[in-house]
Amino acid sequence: MADAACNEGSRRRIVIVVLLVLLLPLQTSCQQSTTKKLYVVKEEAHDSIIYSYKHGFSGFAAMLTESQAQDIAGSINGAAELTPTTRGVDLTTPACFTASISIHYAASYLSIKPSSVHRLHTTHSQDFLGLDYTKPTGLLHDAKYGDGVIIGIIDTGIWPESASFSDDGLGPVPSKWKGTCQTGQEFSSNQCNRKIIGARWYDKHLTPKDLEGEYRSARDANSHGTHVASTAAGALVPNVSFHGLAAGYARGAAPHARLAVYKACWGQGDCSEAAVMQAIDDAIHDGVDVLSLSLGLPSSEYYTSLHAVNNGIAVVFAAGNDGPAPRTVTNASPWVISVASATMDRAFPTVITLSNSTSNFVGQSLFYDTDDKNYNCCLFGTPETSNVTLAAGKIVLCNSPSSVSLISPTILPEAGAKGIIFAAYAFDILDAVESCGSMPCVLVDFEVAQQIKQSADENTALLVKVTAAQTWIGGEVLAPKISAFSSRGPSPLYPEFLKPDIAAPGSNILAAVKDSYKFKSGTSMACPHVSGVVALLKALHPDWSPAIIKSALVTTASNEKYGLPILADGLPQKIADPFDYGGGFINPNRLVDPGLAYDVDPKDYIALDCDSANSSCESAYKNLNLPSIAIPNLKQPTTVLRTVTNVGQADAVYKAVVQSPPGVQILVEPSILQFSLSKKKQSFKVTFSMTHKFQGGYLFGSLAWCDGGAHYVRIPIAVRPVHSSSSSFHCKHPTLWSPNTTIKHQKSKEAALESIIYSYKHAFSGFAAMLTESQAQTIAELPEVRSIKPSRVHPLHTTHSQDFLGLDYTKPTGLLHDAKYGDGIIIGIIDSGIWPESASFSDHGLSPIPSKWKGQCQAGEAFRSNQCNRKIIGARWYDKHLSAEDLKGEYRSARDAHGHGTHVASTAAGALVPNISFHGLAPGYARGIAPHARLAVYKACWGLGASCHDAGIIKAFDDAIHDGVDVLSLSIGKSGDEFFSSFHAVKNGITVIFAAGNEGPAPRTVTNALPWVITVASATIDRVFPTVITLANGSSSIVPKDNNWYEIHHSSCLISNGEKINASLASGKIVFCYSPLSVSITSPFGYVSLAVKAAKEAGAKGIIIATYGLDILDYFEKCGAMPCIFVDFDAVGQINSSGDENTTPLVKIAPARTWVGGEVLAPKISTFSSRGPSPLLPQFLKPDVAAPGSNILAAVKDSYKFQSGTSMACPHVSGVAALLKALHPDWSPAIIKSALVTTASNDRYGLPILANGLPQKIADPFDYGGGFIDPNKATDPGLAYDVDPKDYDLVVNCESANSSCESIFQNLNLPSIAIPNLTMPTTVLRTVTNVGQDDAIYKAVVQCPPGVRISVEPSVLQFKQGKKKQSFKVTFSMTHKVQGSYLFGSLAWCDGAAHYVRIPIAIRPVVSENYADL
């Protein structure tokens, strides 16, 4: 045991000295002689050694001071280097801790670094894998249940008394076993048996404090190791359950395999590198066949595992639990098998019954109390905000769509709550609520949460009952899905090797924990499933190398189930790709006969010990014969070599089947491989080239070899093309009522009139009045009142873009020219006002004001009536509902104090203004989409936060209808609210466009989802602002001694969590913000702005933020002259490795430049853009379209600035709608919407449009509706989905619980179809109007959502002069009954020429209505 009593001056640390000379072990005497150079006495040298490595490699771990470590580093061959620190470990701290030296070896090279502490990554699953214990065929049976194979478990030890480790029925211990059963505290030698054949433990590096609550033996105090071991090789145990849930037999994947236990992890799961290395070394000596390690640490690798592989041991690692963030995968060495976690087809439905509802709602839980109890419902909030007064005696409903982390509910009992209903995106960590015990803690999806909240809002005396969970198993549960927590690729250390390799069950796994059985989730649980399968494979094929075993796993893995693609939980959920699951989900019975295998000579692994910047090293990485291909930087045509070994039938012919990544061409030579008895190996080369040069993210494909029979040997491919490197009443809030009703309530007519602040009369009858809550309640009960509600406050959502849309100002053809630049069309802007002096609102060259205009130019503070002109033809403002406090810093006029309204208006209809830029960036002309359209300004948003009150907005709608606008643009909205008053505008022929919201990438965050409006998502454009970052080693003589080079200070920048950037460390430096789990989990606006502010307050000279989306650069505007830069996570590794081990890297930042063109992969849906489905109206697919909204340069007061948001996307569509209205004045708002949706694009240059998020994915209709707008195509859509306004009336007056209402919603003639609950075959009706050539024939083209069958009748539509409308029906049915997530497809009508009229489809198959995603 190491001496804990060390002081700062003589602290000793564990130093691991490893020498490698052609993999030949050195003797202990050699090790001791090395330490003799530091110690005068030989005995002292011997005493300093705590672990000796000699079986697989040569070296030792010794307790040394830093200076002694430095001396020893330089004493061996004179060619050693000491790594003074690893991330998060500082050798200069006064605390005494362990450290080790890790090694990369050449014959005379030693690398020495502090020992890292690694964390543990924390039964029906075998049946789900097809390992049927009772079946007389298949891998399990043929491999004799793994008998004779030894699995080494390096973990927290084992609980030997568990029934899972019984050796009943097992034969003798395998003769090859050379290990020992090391005794210790409460672990005697007879506790090893024919199942647990050996046990060792490693505590020499620990202090007495580390051992508190621990056993100094192989006994497991943590339970993690016991759970893992029983999952890999537990015996068959009957009558196992968790309080009756998941009842049945418990067993491991290889129930007859033997276990060798190596306890290297202690306490809460801390695994010292020194101990893990000793465990690997001992395992090599002991004769294990498989090593299972459910542990790891980001940015660290166990290189010593190579020695195990060189000794024929298959090494299996957990991939990590830091998902769904990309680039978080750990244990990415190419010789190991890295395992991701997935769900299985078992769920625990829990019924929630509300006292006022005829329906039951279902979530998932581990709730096991069978007593029926009713509780008060509901307190709404989050666990952190649930106080004792409000929560006591209630069920708490936590409903926060923008939060993805599952917060432990154990604090709720302290608040007196009776339970928790938690809205979540994924249900793959139910063990997190295990501690609730008999208190119900239920996870539901957000649709169920919304329905419960709606019921509670309608009935304040609502009671809720939660019944005990049940077990549901089978194909109706959509599985597998990659677990949300499972770490994703690529590896930040080794992007050249595709990781993870495979996925296996890891969510809600029931296995042994001491004397009981409990659920655990993590890649730690997935890893032993694969270890057990590897043991079975080793038993069946004892001659197979670790590489062949890995190849068999990867090449036979599945990427679908029941014809449905495997999905990956995350934000948002998406179809899984190789960075989620490698080759796919493990398929044990297929891998026994893979046909071909990618084997690796161990010498090829050793060749990887080279400088990655070396060209020969690059070749070694690229051509390592792995069952996968990753090219992190495809700049030019690149050829990769591979060799396959025939492990199947001797005479065989295989043909190459290529699925190329989008935009990448793959050539395989030869494309046919012929094998014979004497020709078991064949080599081939794969050449990759780009079909279009662009700077992009990773794209995925596959290469398979198919023999036309049972073998389809598929490997995954990842290529990254690189072109160059609920409201309450408040007495002063206005409320909407009927005027006569108010007179009845007030003492006099005069008092009633005084209470009215706005009167609505042009489209509907009503007004806003200042009333107390009791007055409002009295009026609400009167029969003539249809609806009353408080006036809510809505926030604002916040130029090459026109050219990017194809609206060329100089071109004599196209929509812009043909529509006369929007002349004669009036766009109403309901926003924060306008800055009339801006050059963008010049009326130079414009004709007189349209005669239809009936509005006015309302004068006010700093806004004269003559400041309206032929561009700004009208202005109104609404401040009667505001207090003096609200008006601080404001103009009591239409003048814009905020800037938002000016930016929006100039984007929609700004005039042509030359020589515009932002400090030289994005130079050129500024103009609006419809530069000759006229603007009517309605200022309804006030203050620095641009708050927009219902009362003002409704009045603005009413005035706009009167004034004669053609288009209304509203870049405003609030989650959970809808502007039903917009219906009256649409009925009056006004096209209404709304921003979708900025709460992305979280699903179910889209706002303004009414079916008659156009809801706009945000996307990027093909313009970027590259900023060169130059890195240098601080000790390098090449660094100029000027004032432009700065040191880097690393920080998580999690300011919202209460952290600060340490001024003493950051002052005068560049702050590098690196926190993969913090960005893009929710909208990045807050993270970025807080980080920038904190950096400035700390005295930093600049800030570099690593992020997933680079689409909100305007948040850096406040940086001024201080450099503030976004980098993607691919750049993180370069920045982190720029200095050598003894110095801090220096950085120099050059000014940004402007880069425009097709090499920029665009459009991509912006990270912040709110996503569908609508939580209020899931029957209508939203958003409708996407348009440019990221980094848009437009007018702000007298200058031009960048702003980002769906607020910026909305006016782009408003401008296009104005152009369409000018060209087609007879088109209804519904036809304009239809034209935009049906002609929108979902690809560019043959590449699918991507959606930024966590992780990035191919965009789907909930990201962008029909797609990215294509204005020129929208001029001639061919067919249109028109809507009679009377049909909207039916929707407005509908109660959604009514069955006839369901039909109305379903058959509303929208250019999209959404079925949120497909429980049975469902038919939807649609009608199209021919707005193109009179005589035309259209045929239906259907892209079915996976697992859904679509039938269209008739499938051919024929139009002629007297027959402009045709109706058809679309029937949807499930090919396989499954409780699933939304799936996407499309229906198009094609005339064989220019028209392809496509509408998006979103279907959510459910087995039982109101059930959560099981």
UniProtKB/TrEMBL annotation:
Signal peptide: 1-30
Keywords from the named record: Hydrolase, Protease, Serine protease, Signal
Chain ranges of the Peptidase S8/S53 domain: 146-560, 822-1242
Domain Inhibitor I9: 32-73, 738-797
One MF term in the entry's GO annotations: serine-type endopeptidase activity
Positions of the Subtilisin-like protease fibronectin type-III domain: 623-719, 1307-1403
InterPro entries assigned to the protein according to its UniProt record, in alphabetical order: Peptidase_S8/S53_dom, Peptidase_S8/S53_dom_sf, Peptidase_S8_His-AS, Peptidase_S8_Ser-AS, Peptidase_S8_subtilisin-rel, Peptidases_S8_3, S8pro/Inhibitor_I9, S8pro/Inhibitor_I9_sf
Origin superkingdom: Eukaryota
Keyword Protease: yes
Family matches, as CDD domains: PA_subtilisin_like, Peptidases_S8_3
Family statement: Belongs to the peptidase S8 family.
Protein name: Subtilisin-like protease
